[in-house]
């Protein structure tokens, strides 16, 4: 009777897995009895490893289908050829992880840290008693990201050449410098994603949604863009902006003069839908009561700026530095503040008369992955705001109207 082929994945019971994880913690801490986690080709499907520190672990070829890995630290981990279909990797740290050939079909990687990770296609050859070396095959092709959710993920500098990511959700993801040459991104959702400096040469984006996508310095040579929605994409800024024959900086100087003189000089500026990026920095500028709805401040430095009572509704502040800015009473309804730095910002109510206050309003604003640590947001309005992945440790939210779950 012929011998039976051995299964590729080895089953692992809970005590053995727990012992291996504990030994890995000792290894990371440099304690005696430590041992680097090496569970290559192990069957870890549907296991719970939420929040576990698995830095540098070797999980090549492991079956992690449906695994619960949210908030896990998998930085520099080897996941070459791993089966991560429908795994929960929300807020996981996969920085510089080796994900070549991994199958991530249907996985949830919302707000995951994936900077510098390698997602190129790769294959594993295993030795088989009957057939010699053979390719380890998933149910779906290796390197596949079809239907995966990477909304808000940080993929800066990731290697994704030739990736298959049909109908994948990259909403508001940081994809600066990502290599997607030859990738198949049909029907992918890239709304609000930052693709600055990315390489999409030869990629197939047929039917993709790229609303509000940042496309500065992107290589789209020979890319297929049939039926792509490019509504409100953000391209490179103009070299200079004029308002009624005056340079934008001169116009803002008049506004500052008005603020400094309590209205005796200068004038309050109303600058709707203006691209402020050519100025590069508005650090510590005095712009109280500025009216600039629908304007672009993408990636700008506004540290310590005075914007009390300003109308900034619908503005693009993605990646902007607003650290320690005075935003009391400002209107940010429908504004985009994905990955904005708001540490220490003043966002409480602005007193306009005895017993009368105007609250800072972030209604329907996008604050995904924004940093609000140490900010003062007492009584601020965050109704229907998207705060997924936002850092709020130490933020004073007393009396604030927060979004309902």
Distance between the termini: 60 Å
Number of strands: 8
The proportion of residues forming helix, as a percent range, comes to: under 10%
Category from helices, strands and their pairing = little secondary structure
Taken in chain order, the helices and strands follow as EHEEEEEHEE
Strand order of the largest sheet: 1-2
Would you mind describing this structure in some detail?
This protein is 7% helix and 6% strand. With 405 residues, the protein is low in regular secondary structure. The model is unreliable at 1-7 and 123-142 (pLDDT under 50).
Structural topology:
Elements (H helix, E strand, L loop, with lengths): L9 E2 L2 H16 L12 E2 L81 E4 L3 E4 L106 E2 L2 E2 H13 L89 E4 L2 E3 L47
Parallel strand pairs: 1-2
Antiparallel strand pairs: 3-4, 5-6, 7-8
Key structural traits:
little secondary structure, 7% helix, globular, 405 residues
Outline of the structure:
The protein is 7% helix and 6% strand. It is low in regular secondary structure.
């Amino acid at each position: 009777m012929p011998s039976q082929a051995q299964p590729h994945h080895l089953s692992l019971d809970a005590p053995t897995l727990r012992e291996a994880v504990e030994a890995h913690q000792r290894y990371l801490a440099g304690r005696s009895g430590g041992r680097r986690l090496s569970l290559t080709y192990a069957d870890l499907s549907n296991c719970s490893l939420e929040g576990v520190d698995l830095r540098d672990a070797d999980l090549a070829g492991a079956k992690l289908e449906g695994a619960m890995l949210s908030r896990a630290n998998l930085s520099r981990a080897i996941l070459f050829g791993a089966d991560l279909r429908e795994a929960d990797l929300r807020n996981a740290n996969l920085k510089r992880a080796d994900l070549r050939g991994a199958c991530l079909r249907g996985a949830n990687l919302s707000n995951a840290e994936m900077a510098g990770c390698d997602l190129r296609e790769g294959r594993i050859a295993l030795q088989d008693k009957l057939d010699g070396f053979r390719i380890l095959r998933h149910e779906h092709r290796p390197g596949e990201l079809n239907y995966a959710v990477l909304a808000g993920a940080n993929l800066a500098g990731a290697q994704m050449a030739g990736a298959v990511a049909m109908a994948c959700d990259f909403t508001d993801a940081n994809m600066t410098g990502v290599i997607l040459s030859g990738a198949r991104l049909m029907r992918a959702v890239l709304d609000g994603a930052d693709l600055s400096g990315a390489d999409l040469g030869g990629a197939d984006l047929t039917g993709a949604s790229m609303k509000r996508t940042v496309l500065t310095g992107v290589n789209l040579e020979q890319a297929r863009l049939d039926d792509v929605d490019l509504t409100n994409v953000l391209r490179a800024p103009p070299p200079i902006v004029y308002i009624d024959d005056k340079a934008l900086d001169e116009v803002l100087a008049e506004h500052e003069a008005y603020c400094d003189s309590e209205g005796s000089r200068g004038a309050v500026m109303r600058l709707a839908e203006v691209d402020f990026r050519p100025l590069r920095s508005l650090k510590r500028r005095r712009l109280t009561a500025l009216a600039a709805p629908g304007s672009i401040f993408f990636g700008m430095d506004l540290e310590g700026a005075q914007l009390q009572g300003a109308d900034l509704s619908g503005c693009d502040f993605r990646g902007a530095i607003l650290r320690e800015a005075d935003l009391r009473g400002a209107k940010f309804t429908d504004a985009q503040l994905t990955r904005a730095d708001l540490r220490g910002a003043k966002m409480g109510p602005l007193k306009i008369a005895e017993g009368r206050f105007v609250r800072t309003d972030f209604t329907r604003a996008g604050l995904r992955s924004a940093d609000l640590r140490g900010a003062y947001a007492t009584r601020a309005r965050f109704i229907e705001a998207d705060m997924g992945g936002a850092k709020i440790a130490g933020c004073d939210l007393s009396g604030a109207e927060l979004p309902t779950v």
